[in-house]
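User: Can you help me understand a structure? I only have the sequence.
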Amino acid sequence: MDLVSKHEGTLFRIGVVISAIFWLLLVGATFGIALVYLLLFFIFYLFAQSSFITLLKGNGVRISEKQYAELHQRVVRCCEQLEITEMPEAYLLRTDFFNALATKFLRRNYIVLFTDVVDALEKRPDAIDFYIGHELGHIDQKHLTWGWFLFPAMLLPILGAAYRRAQEYTCDRYGSACCNDENDIKAAIAAIAAGDTHWKSINTDAYLEQARQSVEFWMSF
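Assistant: Let's start by predicting it. Here is the structure, written out as tokens:
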């Protein structure tokens, strides 16, 4: 199942080359001292990420067969649909953000569904599969694994934004692959665009026309 957007592979390879040159020059120019700082940064990252995972486990609710079994089945089905054999831990978390996220700590992957999303799509629960599939896309494509290495290239104008957008397009295709009804995909995207209540009254045809009109030079730039 090839769900990678058409530009992501090319942008990824460009980013790898640029980042590799940057890291090699940095290490060479500092006679290896930069490696010490990178090690210290990695230790700091481990502490920060460990704190976030602890916060997640302490304040969120883990989705399992015993807790929110319906959501758990959705995660299982999406993994099967996407042929992902190692299912990540899934959590439901109360926040002020309307979205979902994927994160990684050492070798373990996590996906987090925010309560506002689940509540907003209560009458169209199949649309939640789009969010689950989207976050599974980040995990399956190892976006989280390569993030630190590609950091220098992602700071560059145009390239960084283009690659991040390509990643999101790829993950949207993952989300779409988990939905059996096109209207569920529209509902999920409309909810991101218009919010947890106004998405229900959005004119999807007008919104699609707006999207088509936005594909111009400055939007691409």
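Now, to help you interpret it: The chain has a mean pLDDT of 92. Strands lie at 61-63, 89-93, 100-105, 108-114. Let me know which part you'd like to focus on.
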